[in-house]
Every structure is written in structure tokens, then in C-alpha cells.
Design goal:
Length: 369
């Protein structure tokens, strides 16, 4: 993908130049990977307004950098950020742009040595570039989603009374890795019974019992790209209130998916689903945003929520994940990942990436005891 990375760097170079920086210092490891292809725990990239880009990393990643990043100049250094700042000074850079959204005060102080190098905060330019995915990125994301769905289908029919939330979370994660995931995209959420009212409940030792709703939020990471999917199932025949909120969330989710088209305001997409839940009397039981972008990070721009700015564009992956959470009783969340695309007609405006054979989101799956 070296050509792709080069094109990304050229786009960033133009954006940084518009911000009157002589060079950009990229220190977010995710952004370094996006711009160079190197996945590491210690790397930074110096991108001058003109001249070759310089990728700094240490000896642990030197050979990987030579292999994966043939089109950049490599600098072997342990303290990558000061090393690149010193190189910028040597090259006559006067205004060095940095990423304030991830730069700590201590690291900034280490860069701001006496001299004529001015540190200039950049807007989140790389994050802006990452919103729109190329087809190779979408294919990797689709593979992560396919692994997630297949693992869920393999595991869900094994759910039985007496199994703990932690047991199920570990089983899902192991199954995803066995199916080809690099690792789980995030810590799997399994929330059963009253714990289902906690959107980000950490799975514990609670044992499943008849009458439980069980919410499972999981995702595989594949080649750095993150899947995100949530399904809620019932163990034994559901009570009327459980089926009622499940059907409500399913209806709201489908409305949100239908509204997710190029040009739609992110706040409006959220409102379409939220208004349905609010009209049913559960507005106070849906507190989080409708969804978010996904890619090299599990949460990326754009954000779909109340008052969130921006519009959806072409080739933008997002999640749509409404929920209803009743304190002390339980909850339901249904989530899918899709890619918003330009095209004629509603069916051409999105590609649904997450699918499960065992669970159709519009219908509550009832498992045996």
C-alpha cells in the first residue's frame, strides 16, 4: 500500500501548508500507521512542506519499517519525537505543526527547547482524512465484521443457564481469534439481566438464568481495522416488557440505518432514531449517541449524536446502535456497522457489513434454557 500511503501524506502536506506550518510532526501512533503503514508502539513522522518524509522508530521496529515503509526516510531513535524536532531544526524548519489532541504537556515541553522552532497546533487533519475510507480499507473492515459475525453465530447457540457473563465474553474473544482476528477490537461486553441497563457493563461472575435478556457487544480487529456489533438475545420466553423494548430498539435502528445517506447531517440521523424511542416514552432511557465512525480505531469521526456537527459523506463507515436501558430491570442494544455510499436510491446508499445468521436484528432470538 506504499502508493496509498504516499497519496495520504501528500493530502496531509497540502492541508498542513494551508495552516502555515513548515512541517507536520505526527505523533499519534494510529495516524503514523495510516500515513506510513508501520504498526508500532514507538514511532513518529516528520512531514516537511517539501522534501522527503522521515519516519523515526527504534531498533525493535527497524526491520519492519524497512519492509513496510520503503518510500520514507528512516531514522533509528529511541526518543522519536525529540529526535525529529532536532532534525526539523537542522533542516531550517521554523514552524512545526503538532497534534494537540494527543500531545501531553510533558512531551510538548520536551520539544519546546530554546531556539527558533515554533510549535504550532494543527487541527485534527489526519483524523479528517481517515473519515473517508478507500476500497482496500473497506475490504479489511468487512473482513473484521465477517469474523465477528461468524464467531457470534458459533457461540450464541452455546449460551445456557449457569454460564457466566465472563465465560461468554472469553469464549467469544477466543472464537474470534481462532477465526482469524488479530485480537478483539475492544473488551467484549456481556450484560445480562439487570446488568443490561449499564451500556458498558464489564462482564463479571453473574450467571445467566431463565428470563434474562443478554446483550453482547463484540468486535474483531483484522489488519488493524475494527468491527463493532451488538446483539441482544433472550434466555427462555421473554416477558412482554422485554419484547416491547426489543421491538422498539429494532424499529429505531432500522430508521437510523435508512436515514444514513450521503449528505445527511449526523445530528439528524441520530434524531430519526431517537425520536422513535422518545415517542414511546423511553427518551430518558437512551442516553448515548446513535453511533460513530469506525476504522483503525474503534471510535472515530464522525459522531452521530445530539448536537453533533457535520454531514455523512461517501465511503464513510459508521455504526448505528440505539438502546433502551431500564435501571434495575435490563436493557436492549442492537448495533451494526455499515458503509455510507453515494448512489441512486436508498438501497445504493449503504453497505451493511455486520451480519449474523442466527439473529435477525428485527426479531428477538429466544434461546433454550
Amino acid at each position: 500500500m506504499s502508493d496509498v500511503h504516499s497519496l495520504r501524506r501528500e493530502r496531509l502536506r497540502m492541508m498542513a501548508a494551508a495552516g502555515e506550518a513548515d512541517a507536520a510532526l505526527i505523533t499519534s501512533l494510529v495516524n503514523v500507521r495510516y500515513l506510513t503503514g508501520l504498526a508500532s508502539s514507538n514511532a513518529a513522522l516528520l512531514l516537511p512542506a517539501d522534501g522527503p518524509p522521515v519516519l523515526a522508530t527504534d531498533s525493535r521496529y527497524a526491520l519492519a519499517a524497512e519492509r513496510d515503509c520503503p518510500d520514507v526516510t528512516l531514522l533509528n531513535a529511541r526518543n522519536v519525537e525529540p529526535a525529529l524536532a532536532d532534525l526539523a531544526r537542522e533542516r531550517g524548519v521554523r514552524r512545526l505543526g503538532f497534534e494537540p489532541q494527543e500531545m501531553t504537556v510533558a512531551r510538548h515541553a520536551a520539544l519546546a527547547q530554546p531556539g527558533d522552532l515554533e510549535l504550532v497546533p494543527l487541527a485534527p487533519m489526519v483524523e479528517e482524512l481517515r473519515v473517508t475510507k478507500d476500497e482496500e480499507e473497506i475490504a479489511l473492515l468487512a473482513r473484521a465484521c465477517a469474523i465477528t459475525g461468524a464467531a457470534f453465530d458459533e457461540v450464541v447457540t452455546q449460551i445456557r443457564a449457569g454460564m457466566t457473563e465472563r465465560d461468554l465474553a472469553v469464549l467469544i474473544e477466543r472464537t474470534m481469534v481462532a477465526a482469524g482476528a488479530d485480537k478483539p477490537a475492544f473488551d467484549t461486553i456481556v450484560a445480562s439481566g439487570p446488568n443490561g441497563a449499564i451500556p458498558h457493563h464489564a462482564p463479571g461472575g453473574r450467571r445467566f438464568g431463565p428470563g434474562d435478556l443478554i446483550t453482547i457487544d463484540c468486535g474483531a480487529r483484522y489488519a488493524g481495522y475494527h468491527a463493532d456489533m451488538t446483539r441482544t438475545v433472550a434466555l427462555g420466553p421473554p416477558a412482554d416488557w422485554q419484547r416491547e423494548i426489543y421491538d422498539l430498539v429494532a424499529t429505531a435502528q432500522q430508521a437510523g440505518i435508512d436515514a444514513a445517506v450521503p449528505g445527511a447531517a449526523t445530528a439528524d440521523v441520530d434524531a430519526v432514531a431517537r425520536d422513535i424511542i422518545k415517542a414511546a416514552g423511553h427518551g430518558e432511557h437512551f442516553g448515548h449517541g446513535l453511533g460513530h465512525g469506525v476504522g483503525l480505531e474503534i471510535h472515530e469521526a464522525p459522531a452521530l449524536g445530539v448536537g453533533r456537527p457535520g454531514k455523512l459523506g461517501d465511503r464513510v463507515p459508521i455504526t448505528v446502535e440505539p438502546g433502551v436501558y431500564l435501571p434495575g430491570r435490563g436493557g436492549v442494544r442492537i448495533e451494526d456497522t455499515l458503509v455510507v455510499r453515494s448512489g441512486a436510491g436508498p438501497t445504493a446508499s449503504r453497505d451493511l457489513l455486520t451480519t449474523t445468521k442466527t439473529v435477525t436484528p428485527g426479531e428477538l432470538l429466544v434461546l433454550g434454557p
